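One chain is below:
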Amino acid sequence: MIVNAILEKKAGRLVILNVKEISAFTDYFVICDGTSDRQVQAIAGSVQERMKKSGIHPLGVEGESAGKWILLDYADVIVHIFHQPVREFYDLERLWDDVPRMEIPDEATELNSLSNGM
C-alpha cells in the first residue's frame, strides 16, 4: 500500500531497505524523493490517506509542514520522503549500505507489476 501510494504521486528513486536483521525499531525503510516541497507533501499525503483507509495510522509524522524531509513512522515500516537536494545531503542509503534492498524503477506504476522480490 505504501509503495503504491508513493508511485501514484510519481516519486523518484524509490528504494526499500530491509533493516530487520540489524534494527530493533523497524523492519523496513522506504525512501523516495520529490522535485519540490509540494510534491514531497503530496507523496506524504497520499501514503497517509491510503493507510488511513485501511485503518492504519502513523505512530508519528515529522517534517510535514516544511516539505524538505517528511518521516512517517508506521512501526514496522518507516517512510522517508525527501526533497531531492536534502536526500543527496543526508544520503541515508549509504548509512544502511550493507542491508538487502529493492530499488523500484521510476517508470513503475505499482508494486504488483514488479517481479523483483526481497
User: Anything to note?
Assistant: The two ends are 16 Å apart (CA to CA). The first strand starts at residue 12 and ends at 18. Confidence is low (pLDDT under 50) at residues 113-118. The domain at 2-95 is CATH 3.30.460.10 (Beta Polymerase; domain 2).
